[in-house]
UniProtKB/TrEMBL annotation:
One of its GO terms (biological process) is peptide modification. InterPro entries: 6hp_glycosidase-like_sf, LANC-like. SUPFAM superfamilies: LanC-like (SSF158745). This is Uncharacterized protein. It holds the Pfam family LANC_like.
Length: 736
């Protein structure tokens, strides 16, 4: 088990790391076969908590990493027993407690890390039982905080070896359900008793980072739009004069809001946070302050290719460095103090190509770490917790001494500099080399490759096109065109699909196939889907043959996440899909034209399967084509034949009734009748899947204390539904 220390650790750093471990252990004997779980040690833990944030998993991580740098078996034994105990206690955590910092995913992550450091795969097997993704009640998750809720589980499930893309998408959709959608942008309720939903990594900004990771992995436009709306909300609370974002948890700001409500004053949050005596509460912590927001913006700049998001980052990092260097006794704990900020500085130094920042951090930490290791009873280091105590100081030293030590602020991948264009970037992920299959085929056909082929995919594509067209022999040119056809088609799809938003909106909502009247449905190939017919079978080209066999074969190109993937097709499947290259109605004639040997029911099942996989889309016929379905659905409440158009008519009717009854002077509308009308309108909006657009207005109606105010709120709802919403299709589609 012994390992050599890493060379990039200085002797002083290792000595301090060992001293921290000894402070945590106290007088416990760690001789071979004698270590016992230190539950009786008053210095060790006030309560038995298995999590990464406050408990056993966090300390196990520090001991395991220390073993990896010192080779001391004693620390390896401590790490193993701590994580085994944490795994046992994880079974007692609530099923909904899956966050990286305060739940099961963090414990599993530590177990996997220690299995590598200790060369013990059994730790992962034990942790998998405790994690059990099938038990996660996704629909019942209510706390979206990054550090305090389930949001941090998303990057965990997006990364190997615990990758579960389906579960990560479900968690992302749950975040969309919990979003508060307002004119200021979208936000999430991550912290109680705030004047507004807070920004920061444990506020709405942390949710944005998880949604961006999902968008980068899947390409689903709904996650990108939610992330961009969250960034827009965050920008509302940036104070240029302070170079920081206001901390919306400030109790003084909350008091001002309460006073405004008591006196019936109109509330303007932008003016309210600037009025005297309130000057604004700002902090630089990674949980709710500027450093955490900078971390999110660096990730957003890389994924969205928006360098404008980086504008505040450099001055904030420089300010943090100056404060760290000038501080007298800074705390190096991770959660609320400088340890977490140092993680952000390290990420920014790599992203912005500022290696001198790392040196400045090293010098400052060397000067301050001794003070952070002192533990008076009132010190923040009196505990041993990773996020709030002495173990966090040790992990800070580990991160500074060895870049291989993973960051616990970003359980996924670290931010990378933005790349342009996005299509090039995404194609490169799924290309198996830039047109490598085409180049291999050309070499086997005796085509000399040009020296120094371009690394840029766009230039490589142009070069291959020129070579094919320059071939003088017609028969040979046909062979080259066929070899190039598949990858040329893939590149063309990417060149046309740098943004998935429009294509995704056209395909949403995806109806239950059992609710579709297939006999009258009109289908077409979904955006980004293409059937490629090749005359030669390049995948079955034997080494002994001069050229591939002349055999017609079909390949399907389709978008999956942020990639264009391919899959082989049978002739029957290819002809079936080609029948819908242009919108075509489902019919027995179409079935006969495909030359299928299947039964009509089997043919229908094939269509259903391809619709579920979004290879086929339903054509829209109505004015609100991107949303209001014209195909029949069966309502579970009445088991009757109805359409989305029917719900649209009901919504219009409800809104018109409210407007008419409130405006007529000769009719008295009771409080009960008004509540019932708004309730009916709400239920029909839910059936039309449009409730979230009106949720703030309906919430304001329910919160109104007197009948007169309720009438005013009801007028707003009716006017918005009946006279603004359904008559402006562009607005509807842009907000979809």
């Amino acid at each position: 088990m012994n390992k050599k220390p890493r060379k990039n650790f200085t002797d002083s750093s290792l000595a301090r790391l060992v001293e921290i471990c000894k402070l945590i252990l106290g007088d416990i004997d760690v001789a071979p076969n004698s270590f016992t779980f230190p539950s009786s040690n008053p210095v060790f833990f006030q309560s038995i908590d298995p999590t990464l944030e406050r408990g056993l998993a966090g300390c196990a991580l520090v001991f395991g990493e220390t073993f990896g740098r010192t080779g001391d078996d004693a620390y390896g034994r401590v790490a193993r027993q701590l994580i085994e105990r944490a795994i046992d206690l994880a079974d007692d955590l609530p099923a909904a407690q899956i966050g990286f910092y305060n739940g099961r995913t963090g414990i599993f992550w530590v177990a996997h890390r220690l299995s590598l450091l200790l060369d013990d795969p059994s730790l992962v097997a034990r942790a998998e039982t405790a994690l059990d993704p099938a038990r996660i009640p996704v629909r019942n998750l209510e706390q979206p905080g990054y550090a305090t809720g389930f949001t941090s589980a998303i990057p965990f499930f997006l990364s190997a070896p615990h990758r579960d893309l389906e579960l990560a998408v479900r968690l992302g959709d749950r975040l969309l359900d919990l979003a508060c959608r307002e004119p200021l942008g979208w936000s999430w309720d991550t912290h109680p008793c705030c004047v507004r939903h807070p920004v920061g990594l444990d506020g709405s900004s942390g949710v944005v980072m998880a949604l961006l990771d999902l968008y980068a992995e899947t390409g689903f436009a709904r996650f990108r739009r939610a992330a961009e709306e969250g960034l827009r909300y965050e920008a509302q609370f940036y104070d240029e004069a302070m170079g920081n974002w206001v901390d919306l948890r400030d109790p003084l700001l909350l008091d001002l809001l309460v006073q405004a409500r008591i006196h019936g004053q109109p509330i303007d949050y932008q003016d309210l946070r600037r009025q005297q005596p309130y000057g604004g509460n700002f902090n630089d912590s990674w949980l709710f302050g500027a450093s955490g927001i900078c971390l999110v913006r660096m990730r957003a700049a890389a994924i969205l290719n928006r360098t404008d998001l980086l504008e505040p980052v450099r001055p904030i990092i420089l300010r943090d460095l100056a404060h760290l260097e000038d501080a007298e006794h800074p705390s190096l704990t991770l959660a609320r103090e400088w340890g977490g900020i140092l993680e952000v500085v390290l990420a920014a130094a790599e992203l912005l190509d500022e290696p001198t920042w790392v040196g400045r951090v090293h010098r400052a930490v060397d000067r301050h770490v001794a003070a952070s290791m002192s533990r008076p009873s009132d010190s923040p280091h009196a505990t041993t917790e990773l996020m709030y105590g002495l173990a966090g100081v040790g992990y800070c030293l580990l991160r500074l001494g060895d870049s291989d030590v993973p960051s616990i602020l970003m359980p996924g991948t670290a931010p990378k500099p933005p790349q342009t264009p996005r299509a090039t970037d995404a194609f490169a992920v799924d290309r198996d080399g830039f047109f490598e299959a085409t180049r291999t085929a050309f070499r086997r056909l005796g085509i000399d490759e040009e020296p120094n082929p371009p690394e840029n995919p766009s230039q490589a594509h142009a070069q291959l096109c020129r070579r094919v067209h320059a071939e003088p022999d017609r028969q040979r040119r046909t062979l080259l065109e066929d070899a190039f056809l598949l990858e040329r088609s893939r590149w063309s799809l990417w060149a046309a699909m740098t943004d998935f938003t429009a294509s995704y909106a056209r395909m949403t909502p995806l109806l239950d196939p059992e609710d579709i009247d297939w006999e009258g449905a009109e289908l077409y190939l979904a955006p980004g889907v293409k059937v490629v017919e090749r005359q030669f079978d390049w995948d079955d080209w034997a080494d002994s043959d001069a050229q591939p066999p002349a055999r017609v074969n079909y390949q399907l190109l389709f978008p999956y996440g942020n990639r264009i993937c391919r899959a082989p097709l049978s002739r029957e499947q290819a002809l079936f899909l080609l029948a819908f290259e242009r919108p075509a109605r489902w019919s027995s004639e179409l079935f006969a034209g495909c030359g299928s040997t299947r039964s009509f029911d089997a043919f229908r099942n094939l269509a259903v399967a391809m619709y579920r996989r979004r290879l086929l889309a339903l054509n829209r016929h109505r004015d609100l084509a991107d949303y209001v379905e014209s195909f029949a659905v069966v309502t579970s409440e009445r088991n009757s034949y109805q359409t989305y158009g029917h719900y649209e008519a009901l919504v219009r009717k409800n809104a018109g009734r409210i407007h008419r009854d409130l405006e007529l002077d000769d009719r008295t509308l009771s409080h009960f009748q008004l509540e019932r009308l708004v309730l009916q309108l709400t239920e029909n909006l839910r059936k039309l899947h449009a409730f979230h657009f009106f949720e703030p207005l309906i919430d304001a109606f329910q919160a109104a204390g007197d009948f007169e105010t309720k009438c005013e709120r009801a007028r707003e709802i009716a006017a918005w539904v009946g006279y603004g919403f359904f008559k402006n299709e562009d607005y509807f589609v842009s907000h979809f």
